[in-house]
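User: Last request for today: this protein with phosphoenolpyruvate, please.
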Amino acid sequence: MEKIILGNWKMNPQEKEEAVGLAKEIVEEVDKGIIGIAPPLVFLSDVSDVVSDSSVMLGAQDVFWEDKGSHTGEVSIDELKSLGVEFVIIGHSERRGLGESDKEVNKKVKQVLENDLKAVLCVGEPENMRNKGVDVAKRFVSGELEKGLEGVSMNDDSLIIAYEPIWAISTQSEGPASVDDVLEMISFIKRYLKINDLDGGTPVLYGGSINRDNAGEFLRTKEIDGVLVGRASLEADEFLKIIKSA
Ligand code: PEP
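Assistant: Here's the final one, the structure of the complex with phosphoenolpyruvate:
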């Protein structure tokens, strides 16, 4: 399977010019592969102009589950589509940490899939669960999958899972999880999807402190279908090196 490399810019950068500049630097160097960037909502329109004629996919960091109407501060799937958004990150641990529930995550996943965009569902255990052992971590992750994918049946490639152990995300950690730990959990997730008839060849990515130095060992591992990159996606040179290591 071709590797998927997605950058989540989170609430960065602070200036439109910087966002556009970063997107331009990436677009200039990328002419193949499954590469995507998810800028902040306010810069989607400008970054969309930059990526529109390129092979780089535009992503959003969230979406609301209702189609339209009185939902102050939210963004609809059609609004995202009108800007050329192709994928939406859902259930990132930073959003769950602000109170987003599995039920809300599930409604968002369904909204995205029903509207033919790619849904990147983030799952991953917190440190206190991992400390209780890998079986507890697996139970936590399968619980997130079960609730996040309730009522979802698919046999296309619109669903992407990102395994992001919270303890390995760069803001919480000195480095990534080990390739062995990631491999074990990704294999578990793939088995879970298969057993639950959700496996349409669903790619499962890893996210957590990926940078130019460690990307290669993850991307060379067959079962790891790609990476979701936070901090290191904010520097074009760093992100491009990650892409090249695939
Ligand atoms: C993330 O938060 O999704 C992430 C992978 O961040 P980082 O690469 O900075 O660890």
